[in-house]
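User: I've been trying to design a sequence by hand for this structure and keep getting stuck. Would you show me what you'd pick, starting by listing the structure so we're on the same page?

Assistant: Good idea, let's start from the same input. This is the structure you sent:
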């Protein structure tokens, strides 16, 4: 659920490895979720393992980043 792949998981297909853990997570929610961020950068792009702040509060960490040529912006993936 953290990665947003829930549309690919069919909980009604019967038993599979990890099903019980997914049921628990669906009931309790996840602590982190992956998001795409626009990075305000003019000289470099975000990379993995960089902190993500909301004001002065640390809220997550990047997993990867790079320049989005199609949209002409610096982007990062992060768990927040």
């Amino acid at each position: 659920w953290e990665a947003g792949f829930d549309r690919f998981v069919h909980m009604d297909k019967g038993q599979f490895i990890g099903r019980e853990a997914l049921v628990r997570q669906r009931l309790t929610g996840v602590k982190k979720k992956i998001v795409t961020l626009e990075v305000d950068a003019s000289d470099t792009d975000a990379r993995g393992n960089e902190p993500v702040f909301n004001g002065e509060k640390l809220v997550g960490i990047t997993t990867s980043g790079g320049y989005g040529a199609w949209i002409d912006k610096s982007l990062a993936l992060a768990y927040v």
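That's my pick for every position. To get oriented when you compare it with your attempt: The first strand starts at residue 34 and ends at 39. The two ends are 13 Å apart (CA to CA).
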